[in-house]
Specification:
The protein has 326 residues and is of the alpha/beta class. The chain has ten helices and 18 strands.
Length: 326
Amino acid sequence: MRAMVFHKAHEPLRLEEVAEPEPGPGEVLIRVEACGVCRTDLHIFDGDLTEPKVPLILGHEIVGRIAALGAGTEGLEIGQRVGVPWMGATCGHCRYCREGQENLCDAPEFTGYTRNGGFAEACVADARFVFPLGGGDPVALAPLLCAGLIGYRSYRMAGAGRTIGLYGFGAAAHILTQLAVWQGRKVFALTKPGDSEAQEFARSLGAAWAGGSDETPPELLDAAILFAPAGSLVPAALKAVRKGGRVVCGGIHMSDIPAFPYADLWGERHILSVANLTRQDGEEFLPLAAGAGVVTEHRAYALEKANQALEDMRQGRLQGAAVLVP
């Protein structure tokens, strides 16, 4: 089968013919229909995440159909469409797994990082960690598997306040804006300064206000979610939230947070980070997204154009998400 293979940080992914994987016990073989490109893929490519399996097939926003079942696999069928997220497996016995926090597992496996992902024509996944999907365009569904799921976990951690600020208006924020507006919340979008196109995109999805991340929203926020991986935005967001408000850092990697006055944190403001996701997040979010009528903005790329998709993401040339199609 064909796959775009990562060998070393900063080196372009290579299109290679590799052996098709075989599902082991409790696994499924999936024919990939589409795989979203996530900023985490870019962090692996850039060496910000330093412990990838090498050689590696990136990609953890996978939509495909089951082609084979490993021994002992139950509850899934050949031909069924499923989605594969970032969380690829957990140990099941550490204190975090036992206490319902499997996203913090001490011995996790991650799709497209410690196990091969979906920048390929096929992949193998742990059957316990795939989500059954309904019909629809697989290219449109793919961004829901990480931008949507990690975004939703960030959104849950932000609390139930009415006003919410989204810093960095890309794949995750454009999904969450639709969900938040559907739920009656007021969304304030904060983009790269001067990015009028992204600001107009945010307003078109129902954002009450859109401006640059160097601006102050016109109202105090109940919560702010940071999807841009810039630590300098944390102090700015703290100043934008009310007393008791929350600043949620939604990325797996972020540049260092600069020093800031304690007064900006005082007033029982919170800074939170989001680590991975749980299966419960998917079970809650996917039906919500369908009910809200979430429509993903995406640009499809042929599999062999994965390097171009990563560069377009780096340069901010995308509205919404990039998706690879084998």
